[in-house]
Every structure is written in C-alpha cells, then in structure tokens.
Amino acid sequence: MSNDSLAGAKKKTDLPTEHKDSVRDAAETVVFVVVLVLMLKLFVAEAYVIPTGSMAETQFGHHKNVVCRECGYAFRVNCSDEVEPQVGGRVEVTGYHCPNCRKVVPQADRDKGEISDARSGDRVLVAKFLDHSVHRWDIPVFKFVDSINTRQVQNYIKRLIGLPGETIGILQGDLYVHPNLTYPEDALSDDGFQSPLYPRPLYAKDLWQLEYTYPHAPIARQAFEKGEFQILRKPPDKILAMRRIVYDNDFQAKSLAGKLRPRWFPSGSTSWQTQQQPNGWTLDDVRAPRSFRATGNELVWLDYQHLVPVWSALEETKPTLIRNFTGYNMAEETPRRNNPDDAREWVADLMLECEVEIENLDCEILLDLARGPDRFQARFRPQAGTCELIRTAVSDQPFATTTEAIRKPGKYRLRFANFDEKLTVWVDRKVLPFGSEAEYTPPQLPRPAVGEIPLLPHQIMPVKENDEDRPARIGLRGAVTVRKIQLWRDTYYLNQQGVLDTYYVQPGHYLCLGDNSAKSYDGRSWGTVPQRLMLGRALLVYFPLGRIGVIE
Predict the structure, then answer these.
(1) How many Cβ atoms from other residues are within 10 Å of residue 503's Cβ?
(2) Considering only CA atoms, which of 432, 403, 404, 402 is closest in space to residue 417?
(3) How far apart are CA 428 and CA 135, in angstroms?
C-alpha cells in the first residue's frame, strides 16, 4: 500500500474522533453558558420588569402611549389595573388628561391611534453585586412581604431616601433629615395604660414594621420646630431625572390660538388679541408664539401664566397656582374609578429651560423663578462671561457669581432650577460651579396669632403676585432670541400623617419611597426595608428600545 493510501486511511479513521470532540466541545460550551448565566443571575445581575406606576415618571410600569390630539404632546398613562389588577378587578384605560395643555379626552371623543394598546413596564438590569452599596437617591430592588396580596414575598423597586439611624421628614413635598435623633425607651404615652411611646419589638426581625418608625413622633416634631432637620438636596443628575413637566411651549393647544392668552407672552401686552407684534419684540406667531426675539437695548420680560383652560367657558380661565398634577395618574377609565386627586398641592420648586440665540455679546439674559415672597434670578452677562444668582426679595445685588458661563455668540441650552432650597444652573450640559453658595434659607415667617396653627420652619405660603400671576419669567436685553421654552417642577412627596410626617429608620434598615408619591405603596404605609432583603441597585433600562439608558 502506498504512503498516500496509508495517509488517506488514517484520515478516515480520524474523522469519528473529530466528530466526537466537536460534539463534546459544543456540549461543554452550552453547559458553561448556562452556568455563567446562572452565576450572573445569582451573584452579579438580573433582569426585572416594573409592573406598576409607583416610580413614574422616572421608571414606568404598564402604560399606554398617548399623543394629545389638542397640542401634540406625547406622554404615558398608567394602565397597571388593566393588565395586572391588584384590587377590585380589571379597569380599562380609555382616555387621558394631557399634562401639558390639560385637555380631557374620554373614549367617546378620542381618535383611532391617539392612544396605544397596553405596553409592559420598563425592563431594568439590577446589579446584585452592589446589594450592600446602595446610597441615598439610588433605586434599589428588594424583596418584601406584600401585605395586600395575601402576604406574598415580592420584588419591589423604589428610591432609597432614609439611611440607618436617620429620621426623615416630609413637608410641602420636600424631604428633610435628622442624622441622629434619639428616641428614649422609657418615654411613655399619655394614655391610661402608660404604654411606651417609642416601643421596641420582641423580635429584632420585626423592626421593619411601620410602628417602629415612630411616625409623627412628638420628639421629631419638636426637633423640626427647633430647626434641627436639614433639607435633602438632590444632585444635578437626580434633579433632571425626577423633574415633571408643567408646560412645553412648543406644544400649544390648537383650538386656543387667538382665544386665550398664550401662557408665555411679553409682559403687559395684549397684542395676541389684535395679532400685532408687541413693542420691543418680534414673535414668530403672535397668537401662539414659540420664538421670541428681543430687539431693543432696554430689558424686556416674557411672563408665564399657569392658565389651565376652562374648556367649556374659556372666559372663566384665570391664572392659578402650579399644583402637583401628574398626567400619568389621570387616565380616563371604564368602569370609572375614583382616582386619588394628586392635583391639590401647590408646588413651589420649579425649573425653567430654554434655548437662547445670542447675536452679539452686548446683551443680557435673566431666568426668573418665584417661590412664595421670593424671586430668584440667574443673570447672564455674555460680555463679561458671568452668571450671577440674585434673590430679589433680599437685594438686587448677586449673592453668588461664576465666570464660567457664556463667552461668545451662538445658541445655548439654558436651565435654571430652584429645587430643595438650592439654585442650579446649566449651560448646555455643563453645571455652573456655584457649589454651596447657591444654597439659601427660606424667609422667616411672622409668628401666628393666638389660636392659629403655627407654621413650621421651611414652610412657605404662596404669594399671589408671584406664584399665581407670574411664577416664571424670562428677561432679555439686546439682540437675543429665546425658543423651546419648557417649565418643569420637582417631584412632590405627599404626607400620610399630617402637615409634617416623620419616620425613624432603625439600624440595619432603609426607608424607600416611590417617585410617584400619589400612587405609591411604600415606606409611608408599611415601614422600612431590612438590609438583608436588598437585592441590588437598578442600573439601566434595556427595553423598550426608546428608553434604553442609565437609571438615575
């Protein structure tokens, strides 16, 4: 037999061995992948679907997409009780209440395609390796007992607010903290049984229960009245993540043009009625302006009025306070179910955002926000490259200045936020470096008359000429055009107990609250979360595709 024949014979005898090796390699690969996925799921990361609207409008549960027929604004409405009803049976979402123009459209009036079919909630990736590294403002996922649904253990997703040993306060939508308030074990209540005012559980594992947060504790209220609590201030990335739309001027109600004053319009002018250009301004459309160009060397103002239309009688529409309205919660439903009215509370914390186009540096731009008796301004002087912060009720002189602002002509996206008793300014994506200089203390309120309920520190009452008549303004001098104007508000945390709520966070536990406070079953209702039940931190949304991104 030739050498070639021997080689050929050898190759033939080798083939079955190669086949066996490839099958084994494939099997080993499959086993490796399965083990790797299981290891990742157990120790590193896991996918989680948000079922309810308790974190809206930061993360969404089951919802329907809506494009308002009146103004074209796109938003989402909650349909959790249509897809996965918890109590009371299935409720179909058939209409909406637009958060922008505030048009109410029930089923009988809506157009085909105006509101989508039900969509599932956000799919998020949870980092398990961070289960003991969560921080305030993070969004953890944790296991907890669902006392509504036959006490089954379920996964929850909320925002972490209170850390072990802290006492958290809720007042007028804002959050406050006392880092180390002591609750004496020997303090007794006023009842005839002399029961402990601040009891301890028989078993340490029961510390999570609401009664051991000592809600509305007298000692906590006394500490708050003495000014011992500090407001919790969100960092800039959380401010942007947790803001809620008040009005986007690019989406104006079609049927209101020429019939109702535009919400943004030059101060003191009524020219929208005559359709003539107001003095000192050039508008792209006088009846429904989206672009405003200042043309003179004197400072002129655009005023915002929060005009919620009385659709059946437009002449009755008057400026009103900006309130805690969330369109996501205000779906029209069949059968009709009484939704909690989350539109009653006045919201004082606002953010103004706009695009400015500067033709030359000899100009001035002022973004102005009201809060009770105060008005706060961010004043840009491009010729000097400065931005100044001003509190007009105190002085017309700036109390903080930075030189890292606008320095050349062009287009810029500006943001000015008055959240959590601190002013934050952005130029494009850059946060201007004011630091703690931008923090302020609310005005001291007069002592109440005899018989009146005393006002707490930090408690602010609205002022008509500011908060109703013009809660936001934009001032321009020189050749400047402003467009793409948006007004936002802060997330508003609702009270459960009274004017001031306080909750103590036991050691080894966390207080977690939903961003959608009006629709959230959270620590205000059931207590705190033991550290041992923390699964990890929600890192990113990976579906739907339009919402892919890092979670803030």
Answers:
(1) 27
(2) 432
(3) 28
Which of 341, 340, 309, 304 lies closest to 323, judged by CA? 341
CA distance 278 to 275: 9
Side chain identity, residue 18: E
Distance CA 273, CA 287 (A): 7
Sign of CA dihedral 482, 402, 489, 155: positive
Which sign does the torsion angle of CA 258, 260, 265, 266 carry? positive
Q: Check if the beta carbon of residue 163 is closer than 8 Å to that of residue 505.
A: yes
For tokens 């500011």, name the residue. Answer: 466
pLDDT at 33 over 80: no
HSE, CB side, 13 Å, CA atoms: give it for residue 429.
1
Q: Which two tokens stand for residue 200?
A: 């301890």
The token pair at 479 is 């050749």
Q: What's the DSSP call for residue 327? A: G
Length of the chain counted residue by residue: 552
Selection from 414, 409, 340, 412 nearest residue 377 by Cα: 414
Task: Specify the range with the lowest mean pLDDT, choosing from 440-454, 493-507, 528-542.
Answer: 440-454
Task: Name the pLDDT band for 7 (thresholds 50, 70, 90).
Answer: very low
CA distance 123 to 66: 20
pLDDT tens digits for range 335-353: 655 554 557 899 999 999 9
Q: Whole-prediction pTM value?
A: 0.89
Which two structure tokens, joined as six digits, stand for 432? 């201007």
- Looking at residue 263, its pLDDT comes to 97
Whether the per-residue pLDDT at 479 is higher than 50: the answer is yes
Write out pLDDT tens, residues 214-249: 998 999 999 999 999 999 999 999 999 999 999 999
Query: What would the DSSP string read from start to end of 205-252?
Result: GGTTBGGGG-TT-HHHHHHHHTT--EE----HHHHHHH-EEEEETTS-
Residue with tokens 């007298």: 218
Interatomic CA distance for residues 78 and 54, integer angstroms: 10
The pLDDT assigned to 331 comes to: 79
Mean per-residue pLDDT of the chain: 86
By percentage, how much of the chain surpasses pLDDT 90? Answer: 59
What domains can be seen in the chain, in order of their start residue? Answer: 63-105 (no CATH), 141-232+494-550 (no CATH), 237-322+344-489 (2.60.120.560)
Question: What's the average model confidence in pLDDT over 78-91?
Answer: 81
Cα separation of the two ends of the chain: 76
> Side-chain half-sphere of 318: how many Cα atoms within 13 Å?
5
Instruction: State the maximum Cα–Cα separation within the chain, in Å, rounded to a whole number.
Output: 121
Exposed e or buried b for every residue in 149-158, given b needs 16+ CB within 10 A?
eeeeeebbbb
Upstream peptide bond of 544 is cis (omega within 30 degrees of 0): yes
The answer to whether the CB of 320 falls within 8 A of the CB of 470 is: no
